[in-house]
Specification:
Keywords: Cytoplasm, DNA damage, DNA repair, DNA replication, DNA-binding, DNA-directed DNA polymerase, Magnesium, Metal-binding, Mutator protein, Nucleotidyltransferase, Transferase. This protein is of the alpha+beta class. The chain has 13 helices and 18 strands. The two termini are 38 Å apart.
């Protein structure tokens, strides 16, 4: 089947956050690496494949993952480094096609018919290999690539190709794959949705098909149930969108009297959230990111964002995220100026809903690189140039006037444990450095292009 009939590719950078950590920290290569919030309520963001062998998974509570793999390298996220590697890895893809839809740091859909130059429509297998080769040549990272008739099929193909593989799904192969998948393989069915379907005796896609549309919509609701019914039958009409017409949905308001303190701000936030949520529902979209905007009395503007594991339109899930974003602002700090304007915006919009059908298992919003929202007891990223302290997060970039650049293994009792190594250096052993102000936080190491020697 020619690529004209298989026009959509999905490219996914394998275990991306952990892969960046391994690339810039030679001593960790080939060992279990976990990127996670390290506070008492932290959640795992990414685990590399050696860590997954111990049962560690993304979205798992950090305490649970530590029990499974206590000797893994547990690192706090470095979103700036991930953003730089994402730009470097995906730049050649974005330069080659007019329609590339980037949905995350590590994930893009590509319309193969939109190539600026050359023929990408004659050989689907050659096309996916070329895409994977682009990423490897740019920054040496592993990617999995799938191609199919539509976005659902392409994503399922890339998932089946992990890690570091490619897969082409024509209509027959796609149908064969769908018949062997659980309902959770569909984008939009999370743990609670799966539980609701399981209560109706539906655990697999063949069982969902056999149940009939009335049963599925009865369990999941009319709109979402019908959407999942279509996807379960391999029907997905979502286009690859280089730019969405609607970037965000929201509401904001300037108050006649400044708001002081978190209690007053929360009272002002809730009705704004209700307006924004009503607009989101009217748009027929779901949101991945919730952003709270504050303009203080001196007209300084601050934004804080929280990102969900999957897009949602559920009121309570989104409201919890908005309130957590507000808590991460400076509005409640001692001596904070009053807030003259508040706003709530939903972004990362998607037309396929994340099912959240009950209150007992709503996913806890994960942190987004747009603003690092601290959990209670979480270690916060330190400003560049600040002295390393016992509260500095593990994995942070540091620099020492004598030993040079490295990364923080941990700190305590007046001493920091550091490995002074970079992408192209030999693996380093841990060295102890006194916390006397000479060890400083540093910006991420610049991206080293191409595969490693």
């Amino acid at each position: 089947m020619p690529a004209a009939d298989l026009p959509v590719a999905h490219l996914d950078l394998d275990a991306f956050f952990a892969a960046v950590e391994e690339r810039q920290k030679p001593s960790l290569r080939g060992t279990p690496v976990v990127v996670a919030g390290l506070g008492p309520r932290g959640v795992i963001t990414t685990a590399n494949y050696p860590a997954r062998a111990y049962g560690v998974r993304s979205a798992m509570p950090t305490w649970q993952g530590r029990a499974l793999a206590p000797l893994a390298a547990w690192l706090s996220p470095r979103f700036e480094a991930y953003a730089e590697h994402s730009r470097a890895a995906l730049a050649p893809v974005l330069a080659a096609f007019a329609r590339v839809e980037q949905v995350a740091f590590d994930e893009v859909y590509v319309d193969l018919t939109s190539a600026y130059e050359g023929d990408w429509t004659g050989d689907p297998r050659a096309a996916v290999e070329r895409l994977r080769g682009m990423v490897s040549a740019a920054v040496g990272l592993s990617a999995s690539v799938g191609v199919a008739r539509h976005k659902l099929g392409a994503k399922l193909a890339s998932e089946a190709a992990k890690p570091g593989g490619t897969r082409v799904l024509d209509a027959a192969a796609e149908e064969e794959l769908l018949l062997g998948l659980p309902v959770t393989a569909l984008p939009g069915i999370g743990p609670v949705g799966a539980q609701r379907l399981s209560g109706g005796g539906i655990r697999t896609l063949p069982e969902l098909r056999a149940a009939g549309l009335p049963t599925v919509t009865g369990l999941l609701g009319s709109a979402v149930g019908r959407a999942m019914w279509e996807l379960a039958h391999g029907r997905d009409e979502r286009p690859v969108e280089a730019e969405r017409v609607r970037k965000s949905v929201g509401s904001e308001r300037t108050f006649a009297v400044d708001l002081h303190g978190l209690v007053a701000c929360r009272e002002g936030l809730d009705p704004l959230f209700a307006e924004a949520h009503e607009r989101l529902l009217a748009s027929g979209e779901t949101a991945r990111t919730v952003t709270v905007k504050l303009r203080y009395a001196d007209f300084a503007v601050q934004t804080r964002s929280v990102s969900l594991p999957s897009p949602s339109d559920d009121e309570q899930v989104l409201l919890e995220a908005a309130r957590r974003a507000l808590l991460a602002s400076s509005a409640g700090a001692p001596g904070a100026l009053g807030v003259r304007l508040l706003g709530v915006a939903f972004s990362g919009l998607d037309s396929v809903a994340q099912l959240v059908l009950g209150a007992e298992e709503r996913p806890r919003p994960a942190l987004t690189p747009l603003a690092v929202v601290e959990e209670e007891g979480e270690e916060a990223p330190a400003p560049e140039g600040a002295a390393v302290t016992e509260h500095s997060p593990a994995g942070a970039d540091v620099v020492h006037p004598e030993h040079g650049r490295g990364w923080l293994v941990g700190a305590g009792h007046g001493v920091a444990s550091v490995r002074f190594e970079t992408t192209l250096s030999p693996p380093a052993r841990t060295r102890s450095v006194r916390l006397d102000g000479t060890l400083r936080h540093a910006p991420p190491e610049p991206v080293v292009p191409g595969p490693l020697p």
